[in-house]
Amino acid sequence: MKIVRLILILLCVSSFVIGCDKSQDMKKNNLQVEVFKGGFATVNSFIFSNGKSLIVMDVQRKTYEAKKLTAIIKAKKLPLTHILISHGHTDHFTGMAWFREVFPDAKIVVANEDIKRDIKDYAIYMDGFGATAAEPVLEPALKPKTDELPDGFDYENNIHVLSENSLTLDGGGTLELTTDYKPAEAKHISTVYSKDLNALFLSDFGYNGVHHWQGDDITLHLIANWREELARIKSQYADRNPIVYPGHGDPTDMGMFDRMIQYIDDYTHVVSVAKSREEAMAAMIALYPDHKEANFFLKYSIENHVK
Ligand SMILES: [Zn+2]
Known about the structure:
The protein is of the alpha/beta class. Helices cover 42% and strands 19% of the residues. The strands form two sheets. Strands 1-2-3-4-5-6 form a six-stranded mixed β-sheet. A five-stranded mixed β-sheet has the order 7-8-9-10-11, with helices on one face. Zinc ion is lined by residues 43, 89, 91-92, 204, 247-248.
């Protein structure tokens, strides 16, 4: 009889413990992330969801890609609270004008004033005379608002600077933002870490299986900064061993850092010894035959570094 009672007590205790575990699970936010892989420039957007609300990070280079992305977000039937732009390059911010039309209540946010200025400057530059073969013209919806163009995009009032280095979803789940990087692929950039997902969103510090963008104003000095920061980020996150989400290419693991450093070393060597652009192109394609964007990112990078 006593044994039966003891077993009953043990069962109660164990079910209480399991019950506790369950309630703790319920308290956890169910943060999830979905990658939208853009067809143009192999650029990624990320949709964060906790089952109650949504945040999107980066919104594509082409409005037709942004339209696909907004359709996916709409179908989730949850409020989109924020549109986070990681840095001031057109392949990450062009879609924001379309997003404003579809989600007027969602706030367009950036991590600091520098990134806001980069976005505005890039748009003004492209709207003026910056359109090159490498950078197709600015989409009309992003033309800056002026006295002559009152319906233009209002960069000053439509882009908000976050007051702290984090962004929390309505209903739970926090994205931690880091911006203290040396100028590299972009002058200023924000990366995102999610403890809930143990995931690191590198924006354009990360390229996986895609030729790095080193065109335009990206000097060898900035490429050296990029290499240095990759080594630093790698050591900072080594213990946590997160899933790594690059700005361009598929999600991967921490091995991406060494692969990118190798790519940078190969690239800087190739452009220093090549006697022509054709030779440099051929050498890089031979080393990285499966990398994407050879005719876009690699081509204009080599035009920049092989005169
Ligand atoms: Zn990019």
